[in-house]
Amino acid sequence: IGGKKKKDKMATAAMDPTTAATAPQQNGASSQVGGPIVVDTQHDDMVHDAQLDYYGCKLATSSSDRTIKIYDVSGNSFTHTATLQGHEGPVWEVSWSHPKFGIVLASCSFDGSVLIHRESRPQEWTLLHAARGLHDSSVNGVSFAPHEFGLIAAAASSDGRVSILTHNEDDTWGVEYIRDNSLGVNAVSWAPYAPFNEIGGGEGEGAASAPQPTVVTGGCDNRIRFWTRSAQTGQWDEESGALGSGAAHTDWVRDVAWAPAIIPGVDVVASCSEDKTVIVWTRTGGRGSAWEPKLLHAFDAPVWRLSWSVTGSVLAVSSGDSSVTLWKAGLDGVWRQVSHVEDAAGGGGGGNAAASSQQ
What we know:
Blueprint: E1 10-13, E2 29-31, E3 37-40, E4 47-52, E5 58-63, E6 68-74, E7 77-84, E8 91-96, E9 104-109, E10 114-121, E11 124-131, E12 139-144, E13 152-157, E14 161-167, E15 173-179, E16 185-190, E17 214-219, E18 224-229, E19 236-238, E20 253-258, E21 266-273, E22 277-284, E23 292-298, E24 303-308, E25 314-319, E26 323-329, E27 335-342, E28 351-352, E29 357-358
């Protein structure tokens, strides 16, 4: 099924230790001083994903019970406000849009569909769009594009394709497909809206070109791929830049995460795999240049999810040994572990690095 790690019904949200304090017991939420908040989601089955919105004020969790639960976050307390239904299978992943489009949430499921939900009034949710039958097999990952491109979501599926859902001015939704690989796609991540391809890689005579939508995918063929929408044809083309040697995955790539743009002309992407490794790919010089891999660490269990901090300097890694670790590169370019979060429930699955939830 392009598998997502199945785990217990608890979720943890990592907080800044300088501000964390003991939270009241509210709707199953609890915390300890300087530690993560533990949320009893009240899902009837295993939790697969947990995501905080742009402002960190709302938490969405998805589960094998076919539902999504929404929590309002205030300080260290969580209040359950809604349960979203509509999927006919386990819900693998959720993604929040930028708030300029309102409070919008995308979800993907084993049933081959992507649903777009919107909070029309406080605690009242409506189904904005139902892309049922979007794929022939499980949809394993979903992610909204940078808001500068519009309300666009990408979804990765076990049928080997990536779908691009675009909201049009007439309130309809268009769909495009990228045929990635025949074995299946597990994850998709968008490049930030930044001049990441303007130094040495543009098609013009040295002039800066407008950023084009670009995604990175992780597949069951043990590879990552980069796809860019052509400004001339509007088609999605695989980038020609080669993947450097020195490190490569030897099993399914479970997640990919494009780091926020920090230095113009420098792109950073992280990938994790069933082979227990995390690789950080760096490209200097823009589109067409080679991606140079660097092994971040070899873990003791398969690595399931990745998430960058908003500054792009810290990478959260969740693995099958029930832990979430935080990593940061030093001035010498060596990645070092700076923090560790144990699974509060003590189970045997990996966590969701995005919100430190258990998968």
